Amino acid sequence: MSRLAPLLLALLLTRAASAQDARFDVQAFRPSGAPQDLVGVGQSRPLSHLSVSGGAYLNFMLDPLVLVAAGTSSKSVSLVGNRLQLDVMASVGLYNWVEIGVDMPLVLFQGSDNLEAIGTEGFIQSFTPADLRLTAKAAIPGLRRSAEGNGFGGALTLGMSLPTGLQDAFASDGSVTWSPGLVVDYRFESGVLLALNTGFWLRPARQFADTLWGNSLTFGLGAEVPILRANGITAMGMLTGSTALEKLLTQPQALPTELLFGLRWYTGLGLTFTVGGGGGCGCSPTSPTLRLFTSIIWVPAKTREWEAIQRFKEPPEPPLPPPPPVDPDGDSVIGEGDRCPNAPGPVENGGCPDTDRDGDAVVDRLDPCPLLAAGPRGRNGCPLARIEGNKIVILDQVHFATDQDVILPESFPILEEVAQELLAHEEIQRVLVEAHTDARANDAYNFDLSRRRAVSVQNFLLDSGIAVERLCSAGFGRSRPLTANDSEANMALNRRVEFTIIPPVEGGALPPCPPDPAAGWQVPPTKKGAKRSAPPGSR
């Protein structure tokens, strides 16, 4: 319930016979007549050009002006205990920039206690007109938003109230009042609207019961949220209030506010229905304990404003998907990334078809030997043996029995492929068979073991049909490691057999075999009939 907290009932009773305080308009509920305004909070968009709207708001408020006994919160006298008011409204839009409206308020019924306490015998007048209100709204350039548009909007507003009401019935200020203001709002793509209003209520100063009522700063914050947008049903919330710019020294600062909620239905017939309610803080005059309201606003069908509301009701269309990328060959490699735009191919090959120049079913981009067929015994696109530069490269090591020069059968296919390469390339005059060991055991032992293993490989090639004059052999022991002998894996790499093509000499003569590095090393003799022992861990 609203109260005049500083009023002292006893003081009023003693002064009632001698003087009567100046009364004022107690109604702070000033609805907006455009169909998309948020009841008591305006939105920035004016009505569409030459569109009109008309309708009525009906609102009931409880205890807007009550006296309480000094030092208590108990109601003593209801000056305006309840009021039922009808606002008949109409608006017109001009050029999509300006909106002009009129509001004729009528107090249909109000009640009170006997007003003897404030110097008037009897009760408040039940039916009375209130102050006629003229309104105007103009969109701010750069902030004019269409009905279905999104983003920020802004407008300047101006209201003028004419003293057509009855001041003794707390329905008029008795003179012309003004209400300049500013509206700023934002509409989201979802249809949610947030609006902020601020301005002034410029009215004559009235002293009533040791309280000064005059010019005040007004504010309003509202939101509209679509619930069933396609059906035109939305929910609203509004917080409105004001604070006096002038007050008496003994008068506490008052902040009459109201919080209201409502539901709205934009019909397809051009009728907009709104219903809701709420209440005030109960701490100041003009802020009722309870307020209920309902309204009906009509916009003629087929006008620009009717069409704008129907467009607002339509859910926003989802954005069009981006056009499919240009991919003439349909291989999912598009634009500049496709090196062959007219021939399909895998992404890994830049959109170009895979090729297999050696015909071994391993495509060139994955084939380490794209010009050499793997053959029936090759792996990963490479044959077991192939010529690269001055080497016959083999895919796997030649394996021997541990610490012996006996070739294991698993290495026969590799050596057979080496022999086939030599038979196929008669231009190769001589090949050096090299054998190497890891770093285990001493140099004499490793040189001897490597020499014998090289000879074993040489003999295998001779048995495969290679002429003796085309082969040389040498053992290098541990003198030429490929990598450090610091792990089993690295030592396995260093135990190897290589095939080096000896370059031809001038005049076409057969190139000589290089000297065997193992020739200067001697292995300690063993007893007759005993096997030569190898150092632990050597091969």
TrEMBL record:
<dbReference type="InterPro" id="IPR036737">
    <property type="entry name" value="OmpA-like_sf"/>
</dbReference>
<dbReference type="GO" id="GO:0005509">
    <property type="term" value="F:calcium ion binding"/>
</dbReference>
<dbReference type="GO" id="GO:0009279">
    <property type="term" value="C:cell outer membrane"/>
</dbReference>
<keyword id="KW-0732">Signal</keyword>
<dbReference type="InterPro" id="IPR006664">
    <property type="entry name" value="OMP_bac"/>
</dbReference>
<dbReference type="Pfam" id="PF00691">
    <property type="entry name" value="OmpA"/>
</dbReference>
<feature type="domain" description="OmpA-like">
    <location>
        <begin position="388"/>
        <end position="505"/>
    </location>
</feature>
<protein>
    <submittedName>
        <fullName>Cell envelope biogenesis protein OmpA</fullName>
    </submittedName>
</protein>
<keyword id="KW-0998">Cell outer membrane</keyword>
<dbReference type="InterPro" id="IPR050330">
    <property type="entry name" value="Bact_OuterMem_StrucFunc"/>
</dbReference>
<keyword id="KW-0472">Membrane</keyword>
<feature type="signal peptide">
    <location>
        <begin position="1"/>
        <end position="19"/>
    </location>
</feature>
<feature type="region of interest" description="Disordered">
    <location>
        <begin position="506"/>
        <end position="539"/>
    </location>
</feature>
<dbReference type="InterPro" id="IPR028974">
    <property type="entry name" value="TSP_type-3_rpt"/>
</dbReference>
<dbReference type="InterPro" id="IPR006665">
    <property type="entry name" value="OmpA-like"/>
</dbReference>
